[in-house]
Protein: TrmB family transcriptional regulator
Amino acid sequence: MEQLLHHLRNLGFTEMEAKIMVELAGKGPSSGYEVAKGLGVSRSNVYSTLQRLCQQGYLHRSEGDPVRYSMLKTEELTRMIAGQMKESLSFIENRMPRVEPDQQPFYNVEGDRNVMEALARELERAEHEIVVDVWREEAALMRSELEQAEQRGVKLLWSCIGSDTGMERLLPWPAWNQDAGDRHALKGRKFSFVIDRRWCMLGMRGEDCATQALVTEHPVMVELLLHHFTQEMVLYEVEQDLGGELAERYGPAYERIYRKYVEVDPREADSEVIGDFDGPEDSEEV
Structure:
């Protein structure tokens, strides 16, 4: 009984309204006198509340002497309340004043739980498209949310790296003061999500590092991640189609091309390639 009253109050009914509605639902059509007697309250308070509930459409009122009141069927009541709430929420969402920032902010989210919850909330809101660039471990964590999005008709575009592939397709850009033997000692697995080409998350997660992510709707970051994803997928398809010819001309993973841009010493006027890279292992993309 008390829980029922509590939830009716949460829906905006007063204490007296809630008690009268429960009383009528349990006893059936009753006069104002009978309701007041059953609740042990004054008739004046009951009559004014009954009149208000009738005007709002929550009660039926029969003519006669005495006038008798009855509740709507439960399913009619809940459908009526749900419609009113939906209408109010829609009005608030569309009419609430907004101060648009000059630039879309960047947020840093820390902690595995916080990052995953923020991502799950946005995946639930996806309407058109989700672009995913992850390792298998992170893909498994979001499997349920991604499947639900796909069932809603959201288009999913994947780039997934297996846990047994040493590194990604593209070679990393080491810092100038980074030791040669530590160039690939990146702790954790990178991941990125772009949702409906407006919201994105870029982060790192792993057993040996704290989970962190950058979240923004800034169009520049969204565009960068989409271009990176497109480049990865185009390279993947080219490799599948011309793998033998590419390896024969450039070597595995196009080492000759990458080394021109990744391992360049800015002190050399001729942009001489220095150092030696082992080509990255193949990554699997779906």
